[in-house]
Design goal:
CATH architecture of the largest domain in chain B: 3-Layer(aba) Sandwich
Shape of chain B: globular
Mean pLDDT of chain A: 91
Order of helices and strands of chain A: HHHEHHEHEHEHE
Pfam families (chain A): Transketolase_N (PF00456)
Oligomer: heterodimer
CATH superfamily of the largest domain in chain B: Thiamin diphosphate (ThDP)-binding fold, Pyr/PP domains
CATH class of the largest domain in chain B: Alpha Beta
CATH architecture of one domain in chain A: 3-Layer(aba) Sandwich
CATH topology of one domain in chain A: Rossmann fold
Largest interface: A-B, 32 and 30 residues
Order of helices and strands of chain B: HEHEHEHHEHEHEEEHEHEHEHH
Helix content of chain B: 25-40%
CATH superfamily of one domain in chain A: Thiamin diphosphate (ThDP)-binding fold, Pyr/PP domains
Protein name (chain B): Transketolase
Structural class of chain A: alpha/beta
Strand content of chain A: 5-15%
Number of strands of chain A: 5
InterPro entries (chain A): THDP-binding (IPR029061), Transketolase_N (IPR005474)
GO molecular function (chain A): magnesium ion binding
Distance between the termini of chain A: 13 Å
Protein name (chain A): Transketolase
């Protein structure tokens, strides 16, 4: 599957030139000329989030009322770094020395090293709990505008900590929270019955979309309803 | 101490809008009145300790000061990786307040014991650890902890000394022997049995409710050749700190505390004190043998 430049070029804000730049940045961070950008399961979701959804810019990375994006699936953050560079959060030069001794960018991101990165992640199953706490902290301070988005992988859902967070957020109707699960079917034992059901049984609303279809992703990311947390399951080609 | 924690925390929630409490059912009933007044800042996540620390990390990321509370074995042992990553690695702090200590819940068995909690904080960096020895030491420690953003662990116990020694965490001389006499340091509620154990011995007894950061300057000022450490958690937890602090001073160290093995016995905390040699008679035996 190829990253679909033409289809995305039809959207409101993304241009083919943007995506070409993103493609170049991604190749720069991975040093990989052979693989298509679609090898990166999170690329389309990340791009749609930063291009159309998140109300955060390089100038507002510390603003209390910014939207929060928490990359829980910290493994394989090349697409994340490329998007952050494309949107001006980090200088493109940082992409040239991934995980080098003086690099701020490693194979798992560190929030204290990278502007715009909300959490350091890598060990799976930490982001959703931090996202729940972030949403609760914003609510307790009367910041009703910002949303909290947490991106997970389908294999990451194996971690029990996620299920503590899913159950609690659903039971308490934490409606400022959106989880995005990128499903490339890498969970060893799978999720029979569908990933979305793990959330909906706990009171979440859920939308499952083609994880390469930018318009569908954007629509799903804005499909949340008052009083309930929302999950978007973005299905991409299987890892293996 | 637990009642003082409840009262102080209820007051702090009213006084300081930056404070928030995260619970995993333990003590939720006692904090119910505060929860009714501050529903957005008293958060009971149910029996979910990983989430409890994750939520605390998220709250702190938004600028709040989370106070997290459960049994030591659940808030520390069980959620250790969350403490390491959701707090430390994110560069945020919280106030973790435990009950249960090493074996306050002896009748409940090993599953409710946490003799290793303080040692786990030694695998991390920058944690202040308070081990109050009396309920009247609890409020000032909690108030101070709520006032900043650094990581703090407060270890509450049902064990208590007869007299409170509030004030700074520095080593405080409780009984002074002559110059060069052996120094015995008690951490928290083991002071009273240590005082009984050393009656009639030429030993200086000092006390602290704050083993981290350990008062190394005070230690160096008071220590002669022989140093005795008595801690109400794993024996030897502070040995490395004392050894580093006295690395250029010839000394001998006796480190007393809770043994490392699972005794597979119930009984009372007093029984466990006896089995671990932390009652006055046991301390007297160990100290006399060391000084002989």
């Amino acid at each position: 599957m190829r990253f679909n430049l033409q289809a995305s070029g039809m959207t409101v804000t993304t241009t083919t030139a943007d995506l070409s730049v993103l493609d170049g940045l991604l190749r720069r961070v991975t040093g990989d000329e052979k693989h298509a950008p679609s090898a990166h399961s999170t690329l389309d979701v990340l791009w749609v989030l930063y291009d159309r959804i998140l109300r955060v810019t390089p100038d507002t990375v510390d603003a209390p009322d910014r939207d929060r994006f928490l990359l829980s699936k910290g493994h394989g953050p090349a697409a994340y770094y490329a998007v952050l560079a494309a949107r001006g959060f980090i200088p493109p030069e940082w992409l040239d020395d991934l995980a080098g001794p003086d690099s701020r960018l490693g194979h798992h991101p560190d929030r204290l090293l990278v502007p715009g990165v909300e959490i350091g992640s890598g060990s799976l199953g930490h982001g959703l709990g931090l996202g729940v706490g972030t949403a609760l902290g914003l609510r307790a301070q009367g910041l009703s505008d910002p949303r909290v988005y947490v991106l997970l992988g389908d294999a990451e859902l194996d971690e029990g900590a996620n299920h503590e967070a899913i159950a609690y957020a659903g039971a308490t109707g934490l409606d400022r929270l959106t989880a995005v699960v990128v499903d490339n079917r890498s969970a060893t034992h799978g999720w029979p019955g569908g990933i979305d059901t793990r959330f909906t049984v706990n009171g979440w609303t859920a939308t499952t979309v083609d994880g390469r279809d930018h318009d569908a992703i954007a629509a799903a990311l804005t499909a949340h309803r008052p009083g309930r947390p929302h999950v978007v399951v973005a299905v991409v080609a299987p890892k293996h | 101490m637990r009642d003082t924690f409840i009262e102080t925390t209820t007051t702090l929630l009213a006084e300081n809008p930056r404070t928030a409490v995260v619970l995993a059912d333990i003590s939720a009933v006692a904090l119910e009145p505060a929860a009714r007044r501050h529903p957005d800042r008293v958060l009971n996540v149910g029996i979910r300790e990983q989430l409890m620390i994750g939520v605390a990390g998220g709250l702190a990321l938004t600028g709040l000061r989370p106070i997290v509370h459960s049994y030591a074995t659940f808030v520390v042992d069980r959620a250790y990786e969350q403490i390491k990553l959701d707090l430390d690695h994110q560069g945020v702090g919280a106030v973790l307040v435990s009950v249960g200590a090493s074996y306050d819940g002896a009748e409940m068995g090993r599953t409710h014991m946490s003799p290793g909690d303080v040692r786990l904080f030694d695998t991390l960096t920058g944690w202040t650890v308070h081990v109050p020895g009396h309920r009247d030491e609890v409020e000032p420690l909690l108030r101070a902890a709520a006032d900043h953003d650094e990581p703090v662990y407060v270890r509450l116990s049902t064990a208590s000394n007869a007299t409170a020694l509030p004030g700074p965490g520095r080593l405080r001389v409780v009984r002074r022997a002559g110059p060069g006499a052996p120094l015995a340091v008690a951490v928290g509620p083991v002071l009273d049995p240590l005082l009984t154990a050393t009656e009639g011995l030429e030993v200086t007894v000092a006390y602290t409710h704050t083993p981290r950061p350990f008062d190394v300057a005070g230690l160096r000022a008071l220590a002669g050749r022989d140093v005795i450490l008595v801690e109400p958690y794993l024996a030897g937890t502070s040995s490395a700190v004392v050894a580093r602090g006295l690395s250029d001073v010839p000394h001998r160290l006796l480190a007393l505390g809770v043994g490392g093995s699972d005794l597979r016995r119930y009984g009372t905390p007093a029984d466990h004190d006896r089995w671990h040699g932390l009652d006055a008679a046991g301390l007297r035996r160990s100290i006399s043998a060391f000084l002989a």
